From TrEMBL:
GO terms for molecular function: heme binding. InterPro entries: MHB, MHB_sf. This is Hemophore-related protein. The lineage of its organism: Bacteria, Bacillati, Actinomycetota, Actinomycetes, Mycobacteriales. Gene3D superfamilies: Haemophore, haem-binding domain. Residues 35-111 form the Haemophore haem-binding domain. It holds the Pfam family MHB. It comes from the Bacteria.
Amino acid sequence: MKSASRSLGHTVAVVLATGGVFLGTAGIAGADPIPGCTAGDVTAVMTGVSASMTAYLFTHPDVNDFMSSLQGLSKSDAKKRTQDYLAANPQVRDELSAIRQPGVDLRNRCNIPLKAEIASVI
């Protein structure tokens, strides 16, 4: 089960990375956060996106298999293959875009850089 969880986590990360939705918090120390842009807000939105992506992948085994096939590839190879797959499957592209839209909206509303990361915090 741990392997399946790790695979799913990697798959979701690849999907989100390909779409450019790596969120973190950025700002000036001591500045009041933009309403709705706290670390808790970011976590809540991304939890929803992750849950929706999980449900989608488990109910679309062909997409789940494709995303799983990206494991072990370089970022550039995974990105290229994903772009090709989504171009050949516009309905999947649109469905995945709709799933990640709340993260995109949050990033835009909260001025979160495209590649913001908080990896060293945890």
